[in-house]
Design brief:
- The protein is mainly alpha-helical and about 260 residues long.
- The chain contains 8 helices and 4 strands; from the N terminus they run αααββαααββαα.
- The strands form 2 sheets. Strands 1-2 form a two-stranded antiparallel ribbon. The chain has a two-stranded antiparallel sheet with strand order 3-4.
- It starts with a helix and ends with a helix.
């Protein structure tokens, strides 16, 4: 194989790896083997399903937000999944945030605005731990990136709880889940099915809720995924054309020599 062809193939493979290497997990996991799921955002041509992301937001707000924060996502970011300004104001308006100081040097409480980040259910980490038997509920903004397995891990964890008939014993106050490292998790089973009433009429089974909230949390960690993939495809096309031109030029320049 000529050096020119080797360079072309290497360039193409590098770009493909770059634009498909999305959400690499940094965390380690020694839990059960994860079953690979099919996600709309997988692969070079994958895109977030906006309706699924919106349903996942509903699951997060009505279930997960009672314990978990989403501190790196602002309400105004919801425009990227199809919400308009009035809808975002309505969502943010359900919460209050501490602001200030005012002209008197005092802090005050006001209604959340689209520019605010998702309001945490706790005032601080100490309160969060105290209200959860000493276990600090993790922020979910980057959970997709922070756990080995990414979306498959989140889905597996949410659907992997075993009932009271489980043969596995765990310490009091913990729950057995084979997908959690060590098998014992402080979070009780969060989803049971019919936890929410989807606005679009989708049946809210436990599996459907888990898929939807997993899709939402994947979007929360990778909100620019779709734009990055579009740009990556354009770059890939450009490099292929450039490589072909360079290869043709090389052959023309060196034709007489060979």
């Amino acid at each position: 194989m000529t050096p020119a062809r080797t360079w072309i193939i290497g360039t193409v493979l590098t770009v493909i790896v770059a634009i498909t290497n999305i959400g690499i997990a940094n965390g380690a996991s020694d839990g059960a083997h994860l079953t690979a799921q099919r996600w709309s955002f997988d692969g070079i041509f994958g895109r977030f399903d906006r309706t699924a992301v919106q349903r996942g937001l509903q699951v997060y707000l009505e279930v997960c937000a009672n314990c978990h924060s989403l501190e790196y996502v602002a309400y105004r970011n919801l425009t990227e999944i199809g919400y308009n300004e009035n809808q975002i104001k309505a969502i943010a308006g359900q919460y209050e945030v501490e602001d200030g100081p005012n002209n008197d040097g005092e802090m005050f409480t006001r209604t959340a605005q689209p520019s605010d980040y998702f309001v945490s259910p706790y005032a601080n980490a100490m309160e969060a731990a105290a209200m959860n038997n000493g276990a600090l509920p993790p922020d979910l903004s980057l959970i997709y990136k922070a756990r080995a397995g990414g979306a498959d891990y989140i889905y597996g964890l949410l659907t992997g709880y075993e009932g009271e008939e489980t043969e596995h014993s765990v310490a009091e106050g913990l729950y057995y889940n084979p997908y959690f490292p060590g098998g014992a998790i402080a979070m009780p089973k969060p989803l049971y099915g019919d936890d929410v009433e989807y606005a679009d009429g989708t049946t809210a089974s436990m599996e459907q809720e888990a898929r939807d909230v997993t899709t939402f949390l994947s979007w929360a960690a990778e909100p620019k995924l779709d734009a990055r993939k579009k740009l990556g495809l354009k770059v890939l096309l450009f490099l292929i054309v450039l490589s072909a031109l360079l290869f043709a030029s090389k052959r023309k320049v060196w034709r007489d020599i060979h």
